[in-house]
Design goal:
Largest sheet: 7 strands, mixed
Number of helices: 17
Radius of gyration: 26 Å
Helix content: 40-55%
Structural class: alpha/beta
Shape: elongated
Strand content: 15-25%
Oligomer: single chain
């Protein structure tokens, strides 16, 4: 195919832009690369050469750019298509979002462009990547786990209960929480569920999200003459706050909030440090009436949330008794 001279001149300009970006990249590697791909995507989106060369456009563009910059790795046809999609996705809000976009590596952007359906979802995972310092594989896992959709469903009163100088608003809650990493009998009770969660604490921490540290189960709290025991206590390091979780295997009831309010108040009075943010309370229950839960949460002035959980790996009671216990498995391993 005969290449148009004006097209070659255009290619020359694009390659020069890349070389300039390479020089700046010695100081700001990722940000300059992202800027370059955005500008490249804009050029591709607006050029009339797409109509001239039709379905072969990206292959021809790739070939010509590689001739001009032989050692470049970002000029594969597929990557050029990503550059155009990147520009198209963010062009309306690029000035407002540019700081965040430049903080996320290009490989992450490609995953987000591939997996996300809306601009709002893309922005969520951009910020989620930055806040949680996600690797590419972690980002893919979070998208597959539908963190965005579940976080959109999460019910809390942070906007109402927190002042502007408190940072807990970055704490991502989910609805529902996925407990499918557990295997438990069909007629489990609250104690069994809490036991299973703490026995699988690493997986539970992953499901809770970034920066959670496990403090304990049935943690003893004491205030005045009153002794109480909260179900599960965590500390969220990025947000500098305790998070107390109540597990309920029933449908949410307003009276559940009474316990939680007592725990959060006691933790704030006895455990919270001067540099800590207010304690967050979270009820994770089997089911809830969303309208009732929303009204209950919004009447309170302490940071609280209510979420459901999902749990599908249930073992019928008749099979449960035939399975070896953890102690029996440990004994078998020790006697090998």
């Amino acid at each position: 195919m005969i290449i148009d001279q004006n097209f070659k001149n255009w290619i020359e300009g694009l390659s020069n832009n890349y070389k300039k970006a390479q020089i700046k990249a010695a100081i700001h590697v990722n940000s300059e690369l992202i800027k370059f791909y955005y500008e490249l995507g804009e050029e591709i989106s607006k050029t009339s050469y797409k109509a001239t060369y039709g379905s072969k456009f990206f292959e021809i563009l790739s070939c010509e750019l590689k001739k001009k910059v032989p050692n470049a790795k970002g000029f594969a046809p597929q990557n050029l298509r990503y550059a155009e999609k990147f520009y198209t996705m963010y062009k309306e809000i690029f000035p407002q979002l540019v700081g965040e976009l430049l903080m996320v590596p290009w490989g992450h952007h490609r995953i987000i462009i591939d997996k996300c359906k809306t601009l709002e979802e893309c922005i969520f995972y951009i910020n989620h990547t930055i806040v949680n310092n996600l690797s590419r594989s972690d980002l893919e896992s979070r998208i597959l786990a539908k963190v965005y959709g579940r976080s959109q469903n999460a019910l809390n009163n942070f906007d109402k209960s927190l002042s502007t100088n408190e940072e807990i608003k970055n704490l991502t809650m989910k609805d529902p929480y996925n407990f499918d990493f557990l295997t438990i009998r069909e007629d489990y009770d609250e104690k069994e569920l809490k036991d299973e969660l703490t026995q699988n604490i690493e997986l539970f921490l992953l499901e809770l999200g970034n920066g959670f540290a496990y403090v304990g189960k049935e943690v003893r709290l004491f205030l005045g003459r009153t002794e109480m025991f909260c179900d599960l206590l965590f500390y969220n390091i990025p947000n500098h706050c305790y998070v107390v979780i109540e597990i309920k295997t029933s449908t949410f009831k307003p009276e559940h909030m009474g316990q939680l309010i007592g725990y959060t108040a006691t933790i704030d009075a006895t455990l919270k440090g001067k540099n800590d943010n207010p304690t967050v309370g979270l009820i994770i229950c089997k089911d809830k009436d969303d309208i009732l839960a929303k009204h209950v949460v919004n009447t309170l002035n302490i940071p609280l949330g209510i979420s459901k959980y999902q749990l599908s790996n249930l073992i019928p009671e008749k099979f449960k008794s035939s399975l070896p216990t953890i102690e029996e498995l440990e004994n078998i391993e020790e006697n090998k």
